[in-house]
Write a structure and sequence with these properties.
This protein is α+β, with helices and mostly antiparallel strands. The protein has two domains: about 150 residues, 2-Layer Sandwich (Fructose-1,6-Bisphosphatase, Chain A, domain 1), CATH 3.30.540; about 100 residues, D-Maltodextrin-Binding Protein, domain 2. The chain has eight helices and 14 strands.
């Protein structure tokens, strides 16, 4: 598993380097059929990540790859789930809150996750089976993977049960369902503070103790959540579907997630 993790970390750093080369130049935006934005950074990052993951001989589900029919995918016991640029809207806004997400999924469950924040040169990574998750602040995208491990500090969710509940909200998706959740907390007599972040950084905030809970009551795809779920699961947090009341599952026939809640 360490070798697989090293591959994912290397892929994320190289992808981040490619993304930032475009971030620092003029950003050309296209739009897909679903009207979501697409940039050269998404394409180049995907190409870089594929160059690292294809040699592992583990099949890949990526937002920017042509999707494989479920008749073939259903026989995959293990696969990569990748978002080359999570938070393309944040990338276009140049607010730095975009990530590279790489997860390894076994039997529908994320077992390894890497989230790289190129604008901050910070990488989060986790091995769920070993119940370990870490964060490393790097000096360069070219940092050697052994140096990443040296710099890594363990993640730890909040343990205090103060009267204030910090709720992670999205930059782009603070809808009525989310506001209803916030109001339900207030009705229990709790003081609520909203912590806004883009992309999979919302998972990281809860995992590292910078927030208490992350309600996602808006559409997401598997590649948006797999790496974040791995990181949260590794530190004992749950990512529960509001539809099934069970953990989110992966490599489903429909790659769209149900609404979910990240909490202890």
């Amino acid at each position: 598993m360490k070798e697989i993790l090293e591959t994912a970390i290397k892929a994320s750093l190289e992808a981040g380097k490619a993304i930032m080369e475009i971030y620092d130049s003029k950003i050309e935006v296209e739009y897909k059929e679903d009207e979501s934005p697409l940039t050269e950074a998404d394409k180049r990052s995907n190409s870089v990540i594929n160059s690292f993951l294809i040699p592992t001989n583990i099949p890949i589900i990526s937002e920017e790859n042509k999707q494989v029919d479920y008749e073939e995918r259903k026989d995959w016991s293990t696969c990569w789930v990748v978002d080359p640029v999570d938070g393309t809207k944040e990338f276009i806004k140049r607010n730095g809150e975009f990530t590279v997400n790489i997860a390894l999924v076994k039997d529908g469950k994320p077992v390894l996750g890497v989230i790289y924040v190129p604008a901050e040169q910070t990488v989060y990574f986790a091995d769920v089976d070993s119940k370990e998750a870490f964060k490393a602040k790097l000096e360069s995208h070219n940092t050697d993977v052994e140096k990443v491990f040296e710099l890594a500090i363990p993640l730890e969710p909040k343990s205090n049960n103060s009267g204030i509940v910090e709720v992670v909200g999205s930059r782009s998706h603070m809808n009525q369902d989310t506001m209803d959740f916030v109001e339900s907390l207030k009705a229990e007599g709790k003081e609520v503070e909203i912590v806004s972040k883009g992309s999979s950084l919302k998972f990281c905030l809860v995992a590292e103790g910078a927030a208490d809970v992350y309600p996602r009551y808006a559409p997401t795809m598997e590649w948006d959540t797999a790496a974040g779920q791995a990181i949260c699961n590794a530190v004992g947090l749950k990512v529960i579907s509001k539809e099934t009341n069970a953990p989110l599952e992966y490599n489903k026939e429909n790659l769209l997630n149900s609404y979910f809640l990240v909490s202890k």
